[in-house]
Amino acid sequence: MTAPGEAARRKPARRPTIKDIARRAGVSESAVSFALNDRPGVSQDTRARVRRVAEELGWQANSAARALSGERAGAMGLVLARPAQTLGVESFFLQLVSGIQEVLSARQIALLLQVVEDLDTECALYRRWWAERRVDGVLVVDPRTDDPRPELLAALGLPAVVVGGPAAPGPDPAEPSAGEPSATEPATAEPSATEPAATPPHPLLSTVWADDAKAMARILDHLYGLGHRRIVHIAGLPGLAHTARRIQSLRTEADRRGLDRRQVHSVTTDYSDAEGAEATRRLLDAARPPTAIVYDNDVMAVAGASVAAERGIPVPGALSIVAWDDSALCRVTHPRLTALVRDTPGFGRLAAQELLAVLDGGPLRTVQGELPHLEARESTAMPPPG
Amino acid sequence: MTAPGEAARRKPARRPTIKDIARRAGVSESAVSFALNDRPGVSQDTRARVRRVAEELGWQANSAARALSGERAGAMGLVLARPAQTLGVESFFLQLVSGIQEVLSARQIALLLQVVEDLDTECALYRRWWAERRVDGVLVVDPRTDDPRPELLAALGLPAVVVGGPAAPGPDPAEPSAGEPSATEPATAEPSATEPAATPPHPLLSTVWADDAKAMARILDHLYGLGHRRIVHIAGLPGLAHTARRIQSLRTEADRRGLDRRQVHSVTTDYSDAEGAEATRRLLDAARPPTAIVYDNDVMAVAGASVAAERGIPVPGALSIVAWDDSALCRVTHPRLTALVRDTPGFGRLAAQELLAVLDGGPLRTVQGELPHLEARESTAMPPPG
DNA sequence: TTGTAAGCGTTATCAA
DNA sequence: TTGATAACGCTTACAA
Question: Coiled-coil region(s) at which residues (chains A, B) (predicted)?
């Protein structure tokens, strides 16, 4: 054993190449390549021998060489365009990433993760990745209502899957827009009966999404069933596609039940605890405050509950609270929060699978994730009389 | 504009190569390479022309080709060995990653992030990355008290930096050296099994860490100053290096103040809200329950506060609570939690810088991050009389 | 069933 | 100051 300091510094052991294997197995390099890649053209005997030698030497294909010779880069990219402060608050991303990798790593595909400040930087990064041939495809998260990324990626020919729903706004009753011809094959997404035919979520890229409309309907079923008639939705960033979809769904659900749109509506925030609390304060100060509030993430929900506590407003006695997205937070507060539970790692797995399908030349399509369910806990109950 | 469906599928535009540039600028490929890499050997005139053409064509070096021709892979790796469920709860990692990338992306270096189940898989992954030449270096997080990774990485010759502190127990208080932002050169120091205290933090790899001992001292200063004499530390995973350091520091600080070790001690958990709550319950059930509890993360602290609330134990009236690591959680609960605030993105930046330094042949050393400060909020106060 | 050789896009080593 | 030319490790026609 050499001295530790030296060990860290000594020349890395030479990595074995197929040439080494060829020499040692007494065959040509191409035979080795064929044998190792499960291609026909080598005898079972040779194949076995080559395999054994490769194993002995601990050979792994040099990813650069493989990528260079026209093969794939063996990596996918994921860009997070969020200001650094808002990163930590949500458990969503790491769970998503963990699901994505469960699928990718099974195929020996790496994931490049990059955190950037804004959408322009994100687009620039896609261009660079494409030019550098660094990734075989990307997963686009946080789709916006007006999103430049799908067009860019389609133009570059960089395979991509939109994660988290159609970038285009959800079906709007005002816009009968079923006319667009496209190669889209909605896998499961069948627009609900009361609405006109939906625009294919995104004509340019395959999409994996959750049905926010149905989820919102579930939440409203729960609250309406309890007797709530004044329900406010404290949403997240206004530019995000799923925010738009949720807001739209709330309207639809309110109309369906004949609820007053002034008493059932949405307000947008930046997802932070600060804005969540602020919005809650404003609502509670109103002449006729809501009896139930639906928050678009867990942090805001907890912040809202805290505001209620400050003012001595009992939850759920005088105010019911629902969190869209569950996490440890919802379970540690007092009372524990009723939450919309999603299988986020599962969603990540689905997205990764779809990306692989696109790479394999699969059709452009829209896939829906598992419908989330509402976990009723202690923060929702019947509204106070009146 | 072609039909959308087609756009997504059409052959990617060909990426420009230096050959294209050479042809267009009327020079040789090697001249282009020299010009683009700021190497001497081309006239100012040629250099400028080449640059301009490259710009026009939107050329970016093909990362695979560059890596293959002996250069670096242009990527660093970060492996997270944690069960999927415990991933989301902490805001720590995404913030760390965001700091790391601030430094890496300035140098056009990508970050490979991989989430795995256990340490064995992590080690296997390092081997693969090394064999594939996929990364130029790695950042090792969650160092353990008995950690196989540094030895493996040193043996592979894969540059690495340990993030989050020495894997060995921290330097004993007898040695006042640990204070300064020091850079030790342990290359010559042979670790001796008989004197663990004198062991340099890590003889094999450069290390970036936070001074948990001083941080714990600050927390104890605060609590002791308020009058607390029964203080329990609900720590995280027992195998982690920083857990060991914190436990050790608590002992040291208790001894220094002549406190009873039975009344000032640590218990370990898995960081989950469930175990945090459970440990809290057990403590509060004791004959002489603690008057203050220090939690090793924010989630457990909130869970603990919730347990106190359940039992009608006023915080901070009858129980003071401190969270090690701040987050939105600590600010949205009621009362807001006193927390140890660290600059996590800054820590990530430091780690990335150190890794770059190691790659540039810098010395093996130990760097200390900024000392965290205690943000006193509403969850700590004087203990009840008696 | 095998081996030879060309090519992927760079960088690096030579002569010119 | 230049321009051929040979690596780098792998895949893949094309020949044998």
Answer: none
